[in-house]
Amino acid sequence: MECLDFGQANITPVSKEGILLKISEYDIFKMYCHNFVELETPFVSELRSSDTANCRITAKYNSLTYKDFKSGESYDCWNYVMNKFNCKYFEALNIISNDFNIRNGIIPVEPRIITANDEFKLKISNIPREKSIIQIVSQPFTIEDYNYWSKYSIPLIKLEEFDVFSAKTVFLIKGTKRTIFDYKKTNPCYAYRFTREGSHSYKIYWPLTKDKKFKWLFSGGSNLDLEGLDCLPLHGDLLVIGKSLKDVIILNLLGYSAISLQGEKNKLEQDTYNMLSKRFNEIISFYDNDSVGLEGANYLLNTYKIGMIFVPIETKCKDISDYVKLHNLDKGKKLMKQLLNG
To answer: Would you write out the chain's pLDDT as a tens digit for each of its 342 residues?
Structure first.
């Protein structure tokens, strides 16, 4: 490979820190590692002759690393560019800064606070708006995960069945903006994965966050992503539409087929209702016993004649998750029988 020589060129090197103020390591790997599609997903090396997907890009401590498990090579984004172009460190920095058009000026992005219910519509001058993308790095379930989910009598193996992951790192990608969220023992993070038409989207959940505005991050998906849909039987007598995936999993443990929309205010699409009504003899809603839940249940009743049940207000629990947490699964089964037979 021909060595690039910047020695005689009138180029002022930019710094690594200056580059990372405007783009991320993820952007650099995306630009120069052409076979790279998604974090932790194997791909074929460009740096050597191979037909086997032995390479991955992994995240650790807020940094990305290229790993070739066949050759044993391991590079950060800077060394990857150096090896690809057979150049020196400062030459690699200049290649990157030139390709991303990084100059002394500032990329015209208006900063804003990211919240879980934000549509992430960043104002980027002269750049077409792009959809937000979430990518995650999962990890084995931790003792913190067990402590949280066991309060609801949900075993960790059931989370795997419903495509719920303990998220070590979450990458939110929107145009020129990159935001990284890390799992913390004091604030564990979970990713709900949805698969539709061969692609994945994620809904991120921080259950211990006190402010409800910051509990959720959902990007790249749509209201067609029904929680629990992939775990339904092909046909059945009864389908319960719950408020959340947590409710869905608990209802599954109680012996009922269940799904949830992306919130009680979300509308059930006609095509989705038609599909579900062909698979199940009866559909009921089981929302929170508050004003929002009642409004959502009434919408389903008025639109599709879907009946409704609620956890009795006198139990001082708003949903089946709270009820099982306060009591246990056996008492949850008894409550369900009472509600369905009443």
So the answer is: 444 443 443 444 578 888 888 888 888 999 999 899 888 889 999 888 888 899 999 887 778 999 999 988 999 999 999 888 888 888 788 788 878 887 643 333 333 333 333 333 333 333 344 567 888 888 889 999 999 999 999 999 999 999 999 998 888 887 767 788 889 889 999 999 988 777 778 899 999 998 877 899 887 667 778 999 999 999 999 999 999 999 999 999 999 999 999 887 888 999 999 999 999 999 999 999 999 999 999 999 999 999 999 999 999 999 999 999 999 999 999 999 999 997
Does the predicted TM-score (pTM) go above 0.70? no
Instruction: State which of 99, 124, 158 marks the end of a domain.
Output: 99
Q: How far apart are CA 2 and CA 86, in angstroms?
A: 7
- The burial of 286, by beta-carbon neighbours within 10 Å (0-12 exposed, 13-18 middle, 19 or more buried), is given as buried
The answer to the question of residue 2 being in a domain is no
Domain range holding 94?
Answer: 16-99
Identify the residue whose tokens are 């509308």: 267
Number of domains in the chain: 3
